[in-house]
Amino acid sequence: MPLTHDQQAEIDETRAETRQTLRATSEGMEAHLYRAHPVLDHGFVRVIDYMGDDAAITQAARVSYGRGTKSVQNDEGLIRYLMRHWHSTPFEMCEVKLHVKLPVFVARQWIRHRTANVNEYSARYSILDREFYTPAPEQLAAQSKQNNQGRGTVLEGEEAARVLELLKSGADRAYDSYEAMLDQGDQQGLARELARMALPASIYTQWYWKVDLHNLFHFLRLRADPHAQYEIRVYAEAISACVADWVPLAWGAFEEYRLGGATLSASALDCVRRMLKGEEVTQETSGMSKREWGEFREVIG
């Protein structure tokens, strides 16, 4: 379970507290505040705090004194214009702080996005729990033959059982060694900052991750993509659900122009224009490599 009974009780108690405020609030995001959205087998995503809403984006774009226009239609049109023309600063006026529990190997992939403020649970000061990510059977896949950083066919039968047992037993043995080395009780063992070296990358860690909406959209564009690794993609999908309720107008524009859109190179755009004129364009006459031509054909269907 992602949360213990005591942790859930603490969340319920916090959610029961209400405070009056003059700042802009988002009803959609208020519903997500503090709630833990389960991800994978032991992980979660939890909204701790946020700043701004759709009106904050348009307010910053217009540099107005109040909340901007009262017309939702005008605000939506402006937000779509900003997104369409890659104006990023107004989206930086919104921020969100998340509490995330995730496997270490996912955290190491996630931290490559160097556009957020992060504070991670410290294994130098605290002892990590015996919680490891164990893939579901449908996620046990072989290495892709075409993609060096992707998955191929799903393992089945005895091979799947063998790999699953290796993952589980290896993690348990590593944690047993970790516990045996710790300086605790009557045992003068190893310092926690050294003992943690024995822990596997599948163990869970936690952090607070604070990011503005512009950089969050960039993160989601990459990590919510169907080609992203499953274990980080499910976190991106959980965050996406929160963002869609927080800033629905900005999310709609993001879906339209980023998630659902495509960027064409100068050569690709030239090919489209030639095709519209009735010219038959091939990979040989396109000026593109075979791989780029294949990607182009996939985009235009």
UniProtKB/TrEMBL annotation:
<feature type="binding site">
    <location>
        <position position="89"/>
    </location>
    <ligand>
        <name>FAD</name>
    </ligand>
</feature>
<keyword id="KW-0521">NADP</keyword>
<feature type="binding site" description="in other chain">
    <location>
        <position position="196"/>
    </location>
    <ligand>
        <name>dUMP</name>
    </ligand>
</feature>
<dbReference type="Pfam" id="PF02511">
    <property type="entry name" value="Thy1"/>
</dbReference>
<dbReference type="GO" id="GO:0050660">
    <property type="term" value="F:flavin adenine dinucleotide binding"/>
</dbReference>
<dbReference type="GO" id="GO:0032259">
    <property type="term" value="P:methylation"/>
</dbReference>
<comment type="similarity">
    <text>Belongs to the thymidylate synthase ThyX family.</text>
</comment>
<keyword id="KW-0274">FAD</keyword>
<dbReference type="GO" id="GO:0004799">
    <property type="term" value="F:thymidylate synthase activity"/>
</dbReference>
<dbReference type="InterPro" id="IPR003669">
    <property type="entry name" value="Thymidylate_synthase_ThyX"/>
</dbReference>
<dbReference type="GO" id="GO:0050797">
    <property type="term" value="F:thymidylate synthase (FAD) activity"/>
</dbReference>
<dbReference type="GO" id="GO:0006231">
    <property type="term" value="P:dTMP biosynthetic process"/>
</dbReference>
<dbReference type="GO" id="GO:0070402">
    <property type="term" value="F:NADPH binding"/>
</dbReference>
<feature type="binding site">
    <location>
        <position position="218"/>
    </location>
    <ligand>
        <name>FAD</name>
    </ligand>
</feature>
<feature type="binding site" description="in other chain">
    <location>
        <begin position="120"/>
        <end position="124"/>
    </location>
    <ligand>
        <name>dUMP</name>
    </ligand>
</feature>
<comment type="pathway">
    <text>Pyrimidine metabolism; dTTP biosynthesis.</text>
</comment>
<keyword id="KW-0808">Transferase</keyword>
<dbReference type="InterPro" id="IPR036098">
    <property type="entry name" value="Thymidylate_synthase_ThyX_sf"/>
</dbReference>
<feature type="binding site">
    <location>
        <begin position="112"/>
        <end position="114"/>
    </location>
    <ligand>
        <name>FAD</name>
    </ligand>
</feature>
<comment type="function">
    <text>Catalyzes the reductive methylation of 2'-deoxyuridine-5'-monophosphate (dUMP) to 2'-deoxythymidine-5'-monophosphate (dTMP) while utilizing 5,10-methylenetetrahydrofolate (mTHF) as the methyl donor, and NADPH and FADH(2) as the reductant.</text>
</comment>
<keyword id="KW-0489">Methyltransferase</keyword>
<comment type="subunit">
    <text>Homotetramer.</text>
</comment>
<feature type="binding site">
    <location>
        <begin position="212"/>
        <end position="214"/>
    </location>
    <ligand>
        <name>FAD</name>
    </ligand>
</feature>
<keyword id="KW-0285">Flavoprotein</keyword>
<protein>
    <recommendedName>
        <fullName>Flavin-dependent thymidylate synthase</fullName>
        <ecNumber>2.1.1.148</ecNumber>
    </recommendedName>
</protein>
<feature type="binding site">
    <location>
        <position position="223"/>
    </location>
    <ligand>
        <name>dUMP</name>
    </ligand>
</feature>
<feature type="active site" description="Involved in ionization of N3 of dUMP, leading to its activation">
    <location>
        <position position="223"/>
    </location>
</feature>
<keyword id="KW-0545">Nucleotide biosynthesis</keyword>
<feature type="binding site">
    <location>
        <begin position="109"/>
        <end position="112"/>
    </location>
    <ligand>
        <name>dUMP</name>
    </ligand>
</feature>
<feature type="binding site">
    <location>
        <position position="120"/>
    </location>
    <ligand>
        <name>FAD</name>
    </ligand>
</feature>
<dbReference type="GO" id="GO:0006235">
    <property type="term" value="P:dTTP biosynthetic process"/>
</dbReference>
